[in-house]
Write a structure and sequence with these properties.
Helix 1 (14-58) runs antiparallel to helix 2 (64-74), helix 12 crosses helix 13 and helix 12 (236-255) crosses helix 15 (375-381). 44% of the residues lie in helices and 8% in strands. The strands form five sheets. Strands 5-6-7 form a three-stranded antiparallel beta sheet. The relative contact order is 0.08. With 563 residues, it is mainly alpha-helical.
């Protein structure tokens, strides 16, 4: 057939076709995912049943009564022909479930799991971990499990909660179950943080201290193509301070603020590295330092402190140098900022390369810098937010021992009460009051009258939302931009777009720009405060401030004091 003889059929409207096709794909994706979640819950139950059968086979005594009792606790009430039970019934079963879970844990290590490992084509270690998670979830978290079976939460959230439950002592399971069932968040990242906060309100100070001390370490991993990974684990506030110092130094370099870093007045920063590159180079370019406890060999028991004069701060003793990894190179299109200077080649014909490189090196001097210690610089560039519940800050013991105090938070991550109180006492003298909802611990609205966002409102918004408000984005609100949901009316501020907690929310730079370009739209419900996002194609997503179990625990303590 000749080209001119072919019949050309008109195409459908691309916009309508793409929207229709995507909507259909999204519906099938959601339906399939829900079906997969149901199958995974069923598979977890089958794994647990196989484990119980293995216990009965491996036991030297008759444990039929115990196994049947455990199987009944783990079963779906609907499968047993019962109506779904409420939280009161689960509370009444707390002791029974605690004992059953402890009984199962004792038999996890002794029971042979090779049969299940072969059936699942995995290792015995992996099967044991799955069995422990199944036992913690199905037996120890009945209310949370009922939410997963009903499809209220997805399997991934359920698995994360059950996995964290397996690391707790049995006596905490009932309170952990009740707390999990109360968590209301929009995405998985916020859910994981809320679970961590919930655990911090349950474990004792001694356990928190031991866990932090025991897990303090540095891990390294090396991949075949040359990438190395360094992971430092330790107290949250120390990690946050290290990140703040590194980010502050890198931010100063990018902004060209060399004086606080020790750059001479007659030099300007022409370094071309990005934020992450600078943070990495400053960290790896510093010389490890710290303190050791020693004692003289002559028997004197007074411990000496080795290294007191060289505190372990990034860049203090041997500062990383700007330009180490990006030296100026002949012919490089971005040679560390050569656009601002002219270097005459030692040999115009390009033969004497070494001499030319020497002249470039003489022009671009490498200057050592170190992390500033000036208070104002730290406040602007390397600040962290420490949140301390009022009763913890006042050192008011609301229980029989110190473990009753509610933990604090550093940039939203739990820290021990005494650490939060100590950091607050030794830090900046300004304190901001933040009111929280006693139901879910979220930060309540704070009023403001001008377009300029007050500092205390900015802090409250960050604490309230914790992340970029677009569901699925896990960028921290600390580094986000504050957006007016209803644009501020500069000509007549009283006509709309107020600078208030209800009209402000944090957005990462990418999503803020998309909203500015009208590719994303957001509205706020005036009563519930829930945000509704309109995505391209007409699809909607909702977002609410994530629950804060630490705020909930503090509100309950205040309520107990007043009643």
């Amino acid at each position: 057939m000749l080209v001119e003889d072919q019949v050309i059929t008109p195409r459908r409207n691309d916009t309508v076709a793409d929207t229709s096709d995507f909507a259909d794909c999204l519906y099938r994706l959601r339906s399939t995912h829900q079906g997969i979640d149901h199958q995974r819950m069923t598979g977890l139950g089958c794994l647990f049943d196989a484990f119980l059968a293995r216990i009965a086979s491996d036991s030297h005594e008759d444990v039929t009564i115990q196994v049947d009792a455990v199987r009944e606790l783990a079963a779906d009430p609907r499968a047993l022909g019962r109506t779904d039970r409420d939280g009161t019934d689960y509370r009444n079963e707390a002791q029974q479930r605690r004992d059953a879970y402890a009984w199962l844990v004792e038999r996890t290590s002794s029971t042979s799991l090779m049969h299940m490992a072969d059936a699942l084509d995995t290792t015995v270690k992996q099967v044991r971990s799955r069995v422990q998670t199944a036992a913690a979830g199905l037996v120890g978290l009945p209310e949370f499990t009922s939410q997963a079976r009903a499809g209220v939460i997805g399997y991934d959230r359920y698995l994360h909660g059950a996995t964290r439950a397996a690391s707790l002592e049995p006596e905490y399971l009932a309170d952990f179950d009740a707390g999990l069932a109360r968590i209301r968040v929009s995405d998985m990242t916020a859910f994981k943080r809320a679970v961590t906060q919930l655990i911090s309100t349950l474990v004792t100070r001694e356990q928190r201290t031991r866990q932090v001390r025991d897990r303090r370490t540095v891990e390294t991993y090396y991949e075949p193509h040359g990438l190395g990974i360094l992971i430092a684990r330790g107290p949250s506030h120390q990690i946050a301070l290290l990140e703040a110092r590194l980010a502050g130094m890198a931010r100063s370099v990018i902004k060209g603020l060399g004086q606080p870093l020790g750059v001479p007045e007659n030099h300007e920063i022409v370094d071309q590295r990005g934020m992450g590159e600078l943070m990495f180079d400053f960290l790896t370019g510093s010389q490890p330092a710290g303190t050791l406890t020693t004692k003289p060999v002559d028997g004197d028991s007074t411990p000496g402190r080795v290294g007191d004069s060289t505190p372990g701060r990034v860049g203090d003793s041997t500062p990383g140098r700007v330009g180490d990894s990006t030296p100026g190179r002949v012919g490089d299109s971005t040679p560390g900022g050569l656009d601002g200077c002219i270097v005459e080649a030692a040999n115009p014909a390009g033969i004497d390369v070494d001499a030319t490189a020497e002249k470039i090196a003489d022009t671009l001097a490498e200057t050592g810098v170190q992390c500033p210690v000036d208070g104002q610089w730290l406040k602007r560039q390397a600040r962290i937010t420490i949140t301390v519940p009022a009763l913890t800050l006042l050192d008011e013991n609301t229980g029989e021992d110190d473990d009753a105090r509610v933990p604090g938070m550093v940039n939203g991550h739990p820290i021990a009460p005494e650490t939060a109180r100590q950091l607050t006492g030794t830090g900046h003298s300004t304190l901001y009051r933040i009111l929280t909802d006693p139901a879910d611990g979220t930060v309540l609205d704070h009023a403001a009258e001008t377009y300029t966002i007050p500092e205390k409102m900015r802090i409250a918004l960050v604490e309230k939302w914790q992340y970029c408000t677009l569901p699925g984005c896990d960028r921290s609100a600390v580094k986000a931009e504050l957006d007016h949901i209803e644009p501020f009316n500069h000509e007549n501020p009283k006509d709309g777009g107020p600078t208030s907690m209800g009209n402000l929310h944090p957005l990462c730079r990418e999503h803020h720009q998309m909203k500015t370009d009208d590719r994303l739209r957001v509205t706020r419900h005036p009563e519930t405060g829930m945000l509704t996002w309109m995505l391209p194609g007409g699809h909607q997503l909702t977002a609410r401030p994530p629950s804060n179990p630490i705020g909930q625990a503090h509100a309950e303590q205040l309520l107990n004091l007043t009643t």
